[in-house]
Each structure stands twice: as structure tokens, then as C-alpha cells.
Amino acid sequence: MNAELDTSQLLAVAAALGWASGLRLYAVLFLTGLAGHFGWVPLPAGLQLLQHPVMLGASGTMLFVEFFADKIPGLDSVWDAVHTVVRIPAGAALAAAVFGGDHQAWAMAAALMGGTLAATSHVAKATTRAAANTSPEPFSNLGLSLLGDGLVPLMLWLAWAHPLVFGVLLVLAVAAMWLLTAWLFRFLRALWRRFVRPRDGSAVA
């Protein structure tokens, strides 16, 4: 394992990369690579590719595109739908890369954790933004997007600097996301039945 990070730090970083990838994958790639490039954090060997200038250019470009796409009502949901097949496996791959190929058991466990956390945050984000898009005013959508812009770097920093604090906040965040997703799913299903399905006189659930 990385000589400069203990197991608890590596697990925190793997969890942070997985969870944050479900919200802002390109921000995760760019910020992690940038931190490694400037020596702000010691990147594990499996993540050092992210600090290559070519990779920084690519992830920075996609971060720029996503920053604006995520703030346009309607387009944000399309962007989320397209990235369903990108964020979750990427979160799993990034979490596994924290431990590298020399520690396959840890890497596999990290991949499962990272993929699950990425799926949790992605579904919560996509569901929340879809619900926000049902409102005619644009401010809730913009506010949620800006919240994600700030939350991702904060959680990544906490994972490196204060892994135990990050762990507590992650548990709370995941629990809140599960509850919010369940509630919003019922809300969106009710809207679907009310406005999309042919009216047949049946009661709305």
C-alpha cells in the first residue's frame, strides 16, 4: 500500500472518490490530478495517471462543460441520464486504483464500495434534479448545482486531511441520500401517474 497513507486514509480516499464521482466525476478527476501534480497530496500509484498534463487537460475540459450543463434545467437531467453508464463504473475504478494491483483483495473491496457509493450519490443527484425541474423557477436548480460544486472538493479534502471526520459525514450523507431518493421517487411517480398516464378515473397513489 502507499507508504505515505495508512489504511484508514486509503479507505477514506477510496470512499470519497467513489461517492464524489456520482456527483461530479470530472471534478473528481481534475481536482485529484491537480492536487497530485502540485504535490498537495501524495497520490497512490494507481491514481498518478490523473496528474499527467494530458489527463488534466481532458478532465479540465470536461469539468468546464459539465459545470455549465449542470446548471441548465432539462439539460442537467439529460446529462445525468447519459452519465449513468459512466459515473458508477468510474467511481468503482477510481476507488480500486487507490490500492493498486498489488493488493487485489483490497482493490476489489474498494471497487465494490466505490461503485455502490457512486450509484447512491448519482441516483440521489439525478432524482433530486429531476424533481427540481418540475418547478418553473430556475433558482432551486442553480442552488442544487452550486451545492454540488462546493460539496465535492470539501469531501475530497476531508478524506485526505481528516478521514475520520469524513467517514462520519459520509455515513450521514449516504443515509440522507437514501431517504431523499425514496421520498422523491414517490413524488415523481405520483406526477407521472397524474400528468403522463391516460386519465382513467383511477385514484392517484
UniProtKB/TrEMBL annotation:
<feature type="transmembrane region" description="Helical">
    <location>
        <begin position="105"/>
        <end position="127"/>
    </location>
</feature>
<feature type="transmembrane region" description="Helical">
    <location>
        <begin position="166"/>
        <end position="188"/>
    </location>
</feature>
<keyword id="KW-0472">Membrane</keyword>
<feature type="domain" description="DUF4126">
    <location>
        <begin position="11"/>
        <end position="180"/>
    </location>
</feature>
<keyword id="KW-0812">Transmembrane</keyword>
<feature type="transmembrane region" description="Helical">
    <location>
        <begin position="12"/>
        <end position="38"/>
    </location>
</feature>
<feature type="transmembrane region" description="Helical">
    <location>
        <begin position="139"/>
        <end position="160"/>
    </location>
</feature>
<keyword id="KW-1133">Transmembrane helix</keyword>
<dbReference type="InterPro" id="IPR025196">
    <property type="entry name" value="DUF4126"/>
</dbReference>
<dbReference type="Pfam" id="PF13548">
    <property type="entry name" value="DUF4126"/>
</dbReference>
<protein>
    <submittedName>
        <fullName>Putative transmembrane protein</fullName>
    </submittedName>
</protein>
